[in-house]
Amino acid sequence: MAIVLSAVMALTMGTTAMAAPSPSITTETVQQVVVSSSIGGAQQAVSLSGQQTATLPGTTFVTASGQTVDAAAVAMVTTPATAEQAQAAAASLVAAIASSDVKVVNFTGQGALSLTDAAGNLNIVNNMTIGLSTASGEAVAQNGSISAAFALSDILGGKTLNVGETVQALYQRADGTWVAVPVVIINGTIAIALPAFGGAVNVTFVVAQGTPSTTVSATAATSPRT
């Protein structure tokens, strides 16, 4: 199911006419910031040609030394955040939500996107760094889009979703702006789509009001390169 979800996301993004970012994030007052105590674990690396990832056709990969490499030679590396890193991400995200400037942008294609749970809390259930590297450990940049799939139970860390709740993923760009990205949830698996990035990105998963999506909206968009 993981590869199916990732492939569906990549193909859908590939056939979509990319739109401008939607400003349609619901204005909310965060009641509390809740950071899961289960965040953590071991670093994992999986091949981009494996069962947990998919690549948008036309995506290119370049190493830090400037060499173009094939996707088959690239691994996606996920590094769970420490408790301190998760708290720092939470502080940054809640400040962005409260800012009078646009610090959170919506590239999911969904309207009225919520970032708080049914109780009005900013409920962070997982936080990790996602990057790309070669077998020798050299960092790789990607210019296109990749998708990654995870077991929903691993992302939730033992939490269960209430009726009317889903999971939303956001990543932080180099300029500090947060970007909400497309998420698909089917049969206990969650997949996210990440646009072009030059280095590893911080990805935060929050429980949010809404219905889990099983497809990517036709108005979804990629964000500028991080």
TrEMBL record:
Keywords of the record: Signal
Extent of the signal sequence: 1-19
Protein name per Swiss-Prot or TrEMBL: DUF5666 domain-containing protein
Gene source species: Candidatus Eisenbergiella pullistercoris
